[in-house]
Amino acid sequence: MRFLVDTGATTMLNLKSFATGRVKEIQVTSWTGTAATSAREVSIPELTLGSHHLRDLKLPAIDLSPIGNACGGPIDGILGVDLLDKMAVTIDLKRQVASLGADSDPKVVYAEMENSMQPCVTAFNEGKATEFENCLEPEIVMYTPDGEFIGRRQVLEYLRQRFFKYAPDLCYKMKMHEVQTFGNALWYSYDYSIDTPKEHIAGHGFAMCRKSGTGWRMLNMHNSHHAL
Fold it and tell me: Helices in 60-147 by DSSP H: which ranges?
């Protein structure tokens, strides 16, 4: 169904989309003031948005045709601040994207991310820069003892010169310690090791990945290491 997102309103349904329900008086507030109007109270057994499921909702339904006309087409309702808050939605006005907050245990989300990014570990160990590029956000920032690298191009060039040249004799391993979720992003700290024919590197680090659609990409990585 098609909903208008409005952070300045509470959630309402379009009477023409949800015609059944009992009639009740509600207060509607806008920039012109507050007025009483008649609305139907509609019971919705379940509302699903992404991975979020809200159950047994009771929402008012009024005629939203004028708003739909202003939006260029009919809408089934207004998704307001009350339900946006329940689903921990973050709205990025610059990119015009709404991201759902994580509603799972951080370790469960991490396991999902790790499974999704397993091909990235394989691409690294095999030195496949083109495939590994898809694992990086365009604005990725990587901090290492060798320097600071900003953006995909710089990060990939560093990895080519520093590690990919040893493939397939290249092995990256990592063990996670702490993990936290921030909306659609995941922060975690870890120990890691990289083995090449020339050296064994071990160190600590922390990273942030961001979920984009059904996949994950690396947004930030900060590594310290010492050669053994």
Answer: 65-71, 81-86, 106-116, 118-125, 129-133
pTM: 0.56
What is the rounded CA–CA span in Å between residue 35 and residue 22?
20
CATH at residue 55: 2.40.70.10
Q: Any idea what DSSP says for residue 165?
A: G
Q: How many domains does the chain have?
A: 2
Both tokens of 109, joined, read 């989300």
Q: pLDDT tens digits for the chain (228 residues)?
A: 899 998 888 898 998 888 777 777 666 665 566 666 667 888 888 888 876 778 889 888 888 888 888 888 889 999 988 888 888 788 877 767 777 765 557 888 899 899 999 999 999 999 999 999 999 999 999 999 999 999 999 999 999 999 999 999 999 999 999 998 877 789 999 999 999 999 999 999 999 999 877 789 999 999 998 654
